Structure formats: structure tokens, C-alpha cells
Amino acid sequence: MKPLNPKFSPHPRRNFSKSRLSLFPREVIDLLPFPLLCLNIKGTIIDFNQAFLDLLKRKPHQLLDYPFLFFLSPQSLLAFLQHLRTTRRSEDCSEVNLFLKQSDKEDLPITCFSQLQWIQGEDVICCWLMVGKVNQMNTPEAVTLKKSSCMLEQAVEERTAELTEANARLRMLSSRMMELQEYERRRLARELHDEVGQTLTALKAALERMTQSLPSPTSPDLADATAILAELFTQVRRISWEMRPSLLDDLGLKAALDSYFSTYQHRTRIRVFFTWRGVNEKEFTPAQQIAILRITQETLTNAAKHSGTKSVSVKLSRRSMGVKLSVIDRGRGFDFQKKIEGGTFGLCGLRERAYLVGASFDVKSSVHKGTRIVVFFPFPENQENS
């Protein structure tokens, strides 16, 4: 079959299994006696049932991602556009009489009943079609259609409420797990600093006394042991800091970030350009401060491992409603869509950590063009009002 419009190119590989109607068993939707389709707010077809395919006598790929206007006769275009605007502005079911184009027959009169629904995080216009004009809503077909519409609307509302409640429970559980993780980090960091650190200090002092008591020249093995101990002491301090920097509790977020960047630059030879603009730490909750530090740490660690960049820009700037954190590198970048489809744990973990403190998370990256991560942390009072 020839394309409906040679200038229009629908999405070539939409996954039809990711259906807006997947809230309900597909076999149930396809058994409905009337054509059912879903449109986005621009009027593009994003889903349908078997009865709609039978009505238009087309295959799924000839319908999916095409504007519904393509299948209407010219005399119905204006009426449908007005109907679309009315549906987007109202929560009630609206109807309009239209004509479907028929290639070898006269245009087919239909009545379209539409209602705006919130499905899987987006506005979706659900349309039920009836062949023939329905000017009175007391015909048996119209009554059946209206009952089916109400049942479908109720099912959508119930399923949406269930998903909302499940997501809220999952967020609460994730938040609690993050709190426990930070508690364990703080405890282990304190033990490393106090217990292991003190033991290593005592051992270093014993080695130094032993060195002084021995006649010159000092044994090479003893010198190697002293060097190994010094390196071990440095590693323990670094691990303790990364688990829970004491500077964050003692001197605040900026001091902790400055210290981390200094250590990071020395270890990786990657230069960090840090900007702190108009930020007042007192406007943050402790959880937000920890999230800023952890997201920055993880992002810079990823840059050192994968980007091949020689410098990273980190900017923390105040806005009217919160604080914006941006981390930019000019490294090799990556294919963001493939990373998301592959369920990359690193990006998912960063996003989840941001969401748990009410922040938004955005990533932009492409191959050979670097990566830009932007996280916006709303002030607590704005988060409560939103």
C-alpha cells in the first residue's frame, strides 16, 4: 500500500507491545465490539484495538504514529480539530460526527466519543467510534457504548490509583534504604578513622622507633614496610572520606566538595572547574546535601572511568525556587538511548537518588560530544507546596 503522505514519516520502529492499553489485557480490548483508539494530545494515533483495524482495513504499521486526520474526509477535518481542542480542555466525554475516507466506497459516517485520560504518566485521548451518526443518546448502541466508556474510565482510575500507591510505597522503601545506607557509611567511616586509623598510627610510631634504634644504614625491608604503611594509611583515609566525609558534618557542603575535588584532581589528573554561586547551605535539608555530594562523586567517577576527558566543569548555582547542579565534561560521551534501554545501573541510581529528595534529573550525551548532567534541587518549602 502506498504511504498516505510521502512527506510524512512516522516512527519506523515503535514497539507496539508497549501499549497505552496495556493497563488492560490485550485480548479483552480486542474483543470489544466497537473500534477503540488512543491519540496523543496532538491527535496522533498511539494505540488501537482489533475492531479499529477491521474498520479501516489496514495493518498496524499503516496506522501507528499517523495523525488521525489522515483517515478523515476533507469535510471532517475542521470538525475534528475543534473536537480535539474541546476534549483537551474538558474532563467530560465529548462527541462529534465525522466521515472516514474509503478508497473504493463513499465516505463512511461515524460518531466519535472522546475523553481525556491520564495513562502511564501522560495525557491520552481515548476515542470510541460508532458507525453511523448518533444524534440521540438513547439508541441501544449508544447506551452500550456509554456504559463501556464508563467502565473503561473507572478501570483506568482504579489502575492509576493502584500504581500511584505502589510507587509511593516503593519511594518510601527506597528512601529508608538510602537512610540506612548513609547511617552504615557514617558508622564504618568513623570506625575506619578511629579504630583502624589509631592502630595504623601506633604501628607507624613503632616502626619509626625501631628505625631510630637500629644502626645505620637502615634495613631496606624496614624502609619498604614504612612506605607500605604510609600508603595503607592514605588509602584508609581516602576510603573513610568517600564513605562519609567528616567535613560534611563539621564544615558543610562546600568544604566537603572542595576537599573532594582536590583529592580527585590529584588522583585522576583531571582538572575540575568548580563554581559556587549564591548558594546558602542552610536552605538545604541534610538529605539534599548528601544527595548533592553523592551525585557529584558518582558523576566525576564515571567521567574518570569512561569519558577520557581532561577537565570537568561543576557548577552549583542558586535559582529562585532551588539550586541547580550541573556537571559537564567534553569527553567521548555515549549513546544515551542505548544506555537507558540497557537499564544502566549507574544512571538509574543517580536518577533515583535525585528523585528521593524531590530533585529533577536530566542527562544529555552523545558520542564524541561529551556529557551534561543537570539536577535541580527545590528548596524544602517549595517541595512541600508542589
**What fraction strand?**
15-25%
Spans where pLDDT lies below 50 across 5 or more residues: 1-20
Terminal CA distance reads 50 Å
Radius of gyration: 31 Å
Let me know the number of strands.
10
How is the biggest beta sheet arranged? 5 strands, antiparallel
- Assembly state (oligomeric): single chain
Apparent shape: elongated
User: Element order, helices and strands?
Assistant: HEEHHEEEHHHHEHEEHHEEH
For the largest sheet, list the strands in their spatial order. 2-1-5-4-3
Describe the protein in words:
By secondary structure, the chain is α+β, with helices and mostly antiparallel strands. The chain has eleven helices and ten strands. It has a five-stranded antiparallel beta sheet with strand order 2-1-5-4-3, sandwiched between helices. The chain has a five-stranded mixed beta sheet with strand order 6-7-8-10-9. Strand 6, helix 8 and strand 7 form a beta-alpha-beta unit. The two termini are 50 Å apart.
